[in-house]
Design brief:
Layout lengths: L1 E4 L14 H9 L3 E5 L10 H6 L3 E3 L2 H5 L4 E3 L6 H5 L6 E4 L10 H6 L3 E4 L14 H20 L7 E3 L2 E3 L3 E5 L3 H12 L3 E5 L5 H7 L3 E2 L20 H17 L2 E4 L14 H5 L6 E4 L18 E4 L2 E5 L8 H18 L1 E2 L2 E2 L3 H6 L1 H6 E4 L2 E2 L1
Parallel strand pairs: 1-2, 1-4, 2-3, 4-5, 5-6, 9-10, 9-12, 10-11, 12-13, 13-15
Antiparallel strand pairs: 6-18, 7-8, 14-15, 16-17, 18-19
Helix pairs in contact: 1-11, 6-7, 6-11
The structure holds nicotinamide-adenine-dinucleotide.
């Protein structure tokens, strides 16, 4: 199979869909990989590294798109790129066109297929392909570092001749993959960390990292289905915010990472709650670049907003801020996925074959121009 990698075109995107290492894995399995010249540069991967892995380099997107059966991507394709796909090309990426926006119409016209990695089932066999988790881990780590860098105080306890400095109090809201990595990062930097998640099962994971698990005296604690949280009713969300208010007010840093797949991010920290925090405190909202707003009412994606003396950082494509390792992990997920949806070196393409494979069936949103 001929597999392509283009330079990503979405704003603020620095990742690449396959690194030389992951391209090499596909080449070893018998596939050919065509990479647009410079596609990996923002993630510190140059053309020579791809050539050394056995990939071919093309000058422009047209040269790649004219040769491939499958395009690997990170962000949403732009209209122009989608329009240049050879009829019947398959695309694997993180941004499902199923909502009818973006280049969905063009993909349909090109009789393209689309496999959306964010729809991967959370089963043991799919763990090596779990791009949402690998990228959330990167985002959580970055959130911890950004908080430490923005806070005008130390994270660790320091005993000096000039006096003792108490450790920073960090509160992490949402303890999924990103939240747990934010907890681990803040702990490594010496902060005292506590965390809360709506899933009761998260408490044990929080404690295993040496942080304190907060239990709120409300009835909204849920167990998740398939490892994902479900959306709360609005009165439960109100009770949750009320119960969280004293914890947020007492924290030097609040890192919010709460998400509900396929739904808007829950609002956990209102402007009023921010106003109760101490001047100089910091909030990092990982959910800020959600189109419907983040976990904090005053956050703006990619901006540091000052609200009543509190600095609120809105995350914007956090994995891209660590593009080399984010791409390495993403490329490993991508190559594992591509190998999993091939039979005898050819991509599964009949409705029957797709339906027969749990992973392909969950991720295939568009098959030869028809939405499934
Ligand atoms: P996510 O990105 O969908 O959400 C992040 C976290 O926000 C979740 O833990 C969720 O419970 C929490 N959240 C949602 N609404 C909230 C609210 N109102 N208040 C507080 N917290 C709220 O989740 P995720 O990081 O993708 O993972 C969720 C869980 O699934 C984790 O326990 C993770 O370890 C597990 N997981 C399992 C697999 C697997 O293959 N079995 C793979 C990845 C993750």
């Amino acid at each position: 199979m001929q597999i392509g990698v283009l330079t990503e075109t979405a704003p603020f995107e620095r990742r690449v869909a396959l690194t030389p290492e992951s391209a090499g894995r596909l080449i070893t399995a018998g596939h050919s990989v065509y990479v647009q010249s410079g596609a990996g540069l923002a993630a510190d991967e140059d053309d020579d590294a791809y050539r050394a892995a056995g990939a071919m380099i093309g000058k422009n997107p047209e040269e790649i798109l004219g040769n491939i059966d499958l395009l690997t991507a990170v962000g949403q394709l732009d209209q122009q790129t989608a329009a240049k796909l050879r009829p019947g090309t398959a695309v694997v990426g993180l941004s499902s066109p199923k909502d009818g926006r973006g280049p969905a119409g063009v993909l349909v016209d090109r009789h393209a297929s689309f496999f959306a990695l964010e729809l991967l089932p959370r089963i043991t066999r799919a763990q090596s392909m779990d791009a949402l988790s690998s990228q959330a881990m990167v985002a959580g780590y970055r959130a911890g570092l950004i908080a430490a860098e923005r806070l005008p105080r130390f994270f660790p306890l320091l005993m000096t001749a000039a006096g003792t400095v108490p450790p920073a109090k960090v509160m992490v809201l949402g303890a999924g993959v990103a939240g747990l990595q934010a907890i681990a990062t803040a702990k490594r930097l010496g902060a005292v960390v506590e965390a809360y998640d709506v899933r009761a099962a998260a408490a044990e994971e929080i404690r295993s990292l040496g942080a304190k698990a907060i239990t709120l005296d409300i009835e909204s604690q849920t167990s998740a289905s398939g490892g994902y949280a479900s959306e709360q009713a609005s009165d439960a969300a109100d009770r949750q915010r009320k119960a969280l208010t004293p914890y947020v007010a007492a924290a030097d840093v609040v890192i919010t990472t709460a998400a509900v797949p396929g739904r808007p991010a829950p609002l956990l920290v209102t402007a009023q709650m921010v106003e109760k925090m101490r001047t100089g405190s910091v909030i990092v909202d990982l959910a800020a670049d959600n189109p419907n707003g983040g976990n904090c009412e005053v956050s703006r994606p990619g901006e540091d907003v000052r609200h009543h003396g509190v600095l609120v950082h809105g995350g914007r494509n956090m994995p891209s801020q660590l593009a080399a390792h984010a791409s390495r992990l993403y490329g490993a997920n991508m190559s594992a996925f591509v190998l999993a949806i091939c039979q005898d070196g050819v991509l599964v393409s009949t409705p029957e074959d797709i339906a027969a494979d749990e992973i392909a069936a969950a991720c295939c949103v568009l098959l030869k121009g028809e939405f499934r």
